[in-house]
């Protein structure tokens, strides 16, 4: 089997999506509190205020992770739980929660993989401009320092930010998630520039202050393209599709990753954004150096991809999926080759070890009369994707781990609780957890280091 001996098998969640208790024990509000109260913003008027009540039930949840046999668990820290006003006074009970969580994980033999920011920005700082304020990088560095000082004697694996593409585009342009803004391209570029500076500052803080030698990365998303065939022309077209900036929006890979890993904004992006009339953010002295701190790994979240063939002049052309092509409950297409070509192209361009920090399936799961939760589609989806990930490794991409999204059914942003991604079913009325068939299946994958995938 292609999976190397030390391949890391994990599961992932994020604070706002599972913790609930958003203003409990001194926590401050995040931008999702006012956002979820906006009429029509979230399916059914749902919010994360209760979610999976993980804040109180974490010990049981760690027990369930043990039952699945997870080797690693990716979670995020809620910034306003730790610093209610975003900067300044630290909320001891908020920090103590993460202490207990980390201790429980280590006690169960599960590596904690900590994301500093998974979208729950402190509301108190949003009123000061949020990511549009140049000080946001300092605010984030201060927060990172508090978390690092407290947890880095036990946490070694760090991710700075989750999917900036999503919160810049869907939060700052399309108003689909908090903070629910519709900003100009110019302002989106500014929010992005400050996000990248915040990322770099956090990397510096982690490296300077961690008590145990850290591994540092991020968890980004973007566009994944795979070739319609293995012909050189199609492969090159898919590579270009994935790495070129053609549209004047912030949904791409390279506007984020080139500055972070190569220290410069990509030329094509500069051209496209300028042509769209946006003046680019002022790059302060030293900004690019801050942004391009060395990373130990490239974390990427991949759910689906576009199929690309080489057009007449060799440029990328999208091949539409045939009618009836498999989809998840979200109507996202099921595209296993995304997990072969995505990591391959990213590894090729950025030369960093890759971790799949999220991949998973939204299904219409419920508890059956026999008490089980039967989710054959999630199993089949994951099997197909992991087989393709194995091919990426065989092809030479340095892929070191896979985190399934998600451990638990949870608050799926604008979709509220209507989309279930968990390996574990949650009855939101009673908080009862039930391991789905996929959780039992995943246990076998982990135990056999992927060998059961082809059986
Ligand atoms: C990703 C997010 C994660 C979850 C999955 C389904 O975009 O990082 O929080 O919502 O999608």
What is the CATH first-level class name?
A: Alpha Beta
Strand order in the largest sheet: 1-2-3-4-5-7-10-11
Rg over alpha carbons: 21 Å
CATH superfamily: Glycosidases
SS field, number of helical segments: 16
What separation lies between the terminal Cα atoms? 12 Å
Give the number of DSSP strands. Answer: 13
- The secondary structure category is alpha/beta
Extract low-pLDDT stretches: none
Approximately how much beta-strand content do the residues carry? 5-15%
Bound molecules: beta-D-fucopyranose
CATH topology heading: TIM Barrel
Shape: globular
Set out the fold topology.
Layout: E1 8-12, H1 15-18, H2 32-37, H3 54-68, E2 72-76, H4 79-82, H5 92-107, E3 111-117, H6 123-126, H7 136-151, E4 157-162, H8 164-172, H9 185-209, E5 215-220, E6 225-227, H10 232-243, H11 254-262, H12 267-275, H13 287-291, E7 298-301, E8 306-310, E9 316-318, H14 338-350, E10 354-358, H15 376-394, E11 399-405, E12 424-427, E13 432-435, H16 437-447
Parallel strand pairs: 1-2, 1-11, 2-3, 3-4, 4-5, 5-7, 6-8, 7-10, 10-11
Antiparallel strand pairs: 8-9, 12-13
Helix pairs in contact: 3-5, 7-9, 8-9, 14-15
The structure holds beta-D-fucopyranose.
Beta-D-fucopyranose binds at residues 14, 17, 162-163, 166, 221, 301, 358, 405, 412-413, 421.
């Amino acid at each position: 089997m292609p999976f190397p001996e030390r391949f890391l098998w994990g599961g992932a969640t994020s604070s706002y999506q599972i913790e609930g208790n958003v203003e409990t024990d001194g926590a401050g509000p995040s931008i999702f509190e006012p956002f979820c109260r906006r009429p029509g913003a979230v399916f059914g008027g749902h919010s994360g205020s209760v979610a999976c009540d993980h804040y109180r039930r974490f010990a049981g949840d760690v027990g369930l992770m043990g039952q699945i046999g997870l080797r690693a668990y990716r979670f995020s820290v809620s910034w306003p739980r730790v610093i209610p006003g975003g900067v300044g006074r630290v909320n001891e009970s908020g920090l103590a929660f993460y202490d207990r969580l980390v201790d429980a994980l280590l006690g169960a033999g599960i590596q904690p993989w900590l994301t500093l920011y998974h979208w729950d920005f402190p509301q108190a700082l949003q009123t000061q401009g949020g990511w549009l304020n140049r000080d946001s990088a300092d605010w984030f560095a201060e927060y990172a320092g508090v978390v690092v000082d407290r947890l880095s004697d036990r946490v070694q694996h760090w991710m700075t930010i989750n999917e900036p593409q999503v919160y810049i585009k869907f939060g700052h342009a399309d108003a689909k998630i908090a903070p629910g803004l519709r900003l100009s391209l110019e302002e989106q570029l500014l929010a992005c520039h400050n996000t990248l500076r915040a990322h770099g500052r956090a990397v510096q803080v982690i490296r300077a202050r961690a008590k145990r030698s850290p591994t540092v990365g991020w968890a980004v998303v973007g566009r994944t393209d795979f070739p319609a065939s293995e012909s050189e022309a199609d492969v090159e077209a898919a590579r270009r599709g994935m790495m070129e900036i053609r549209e004047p929006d912030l949904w791409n890979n390279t506007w984020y990753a080139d500055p972070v890993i190569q220290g410069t904004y990509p030329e094509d992006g500069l051209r496209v954004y300028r042509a769209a009339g946006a003046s680019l953010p002022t790059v302060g002295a030293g900004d690019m150096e801050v942004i391009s701190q060395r990373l130990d790994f490239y974390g990427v979240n991949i759910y689906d991809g576009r199929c690309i063939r080489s057009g007449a002049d060799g440029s990328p052309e999208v091949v539409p999926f045939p009618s009836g092509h498999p989809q998840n409950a979200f109507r996202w297409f099921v595209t296993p080759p995304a997990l072969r070509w995505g990591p391959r192209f990213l590894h090729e361009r950025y030369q960093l070890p890759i971790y799949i920090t999220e991949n998973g399936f939204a299904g219409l799961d419920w508890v059956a009369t026999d008490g089980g939760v039967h989710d054959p589609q999630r199993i089949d989806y994951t099997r197909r994707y992991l087989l393709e990930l194995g091919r990426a490794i065989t092809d030479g991409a340095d892929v070191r781990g896979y985190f399934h999204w998600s451990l638990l059914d949870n608050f799926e942003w604008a979709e509220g609780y209507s989309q279930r991604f968990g390996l574990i079913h949650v009855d939101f009325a009673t908080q009862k957890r039930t391991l789905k068939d996929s959780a039992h299946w995943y246990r076998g994958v982990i135990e056999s280091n992927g060998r059961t995938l082809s059986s």
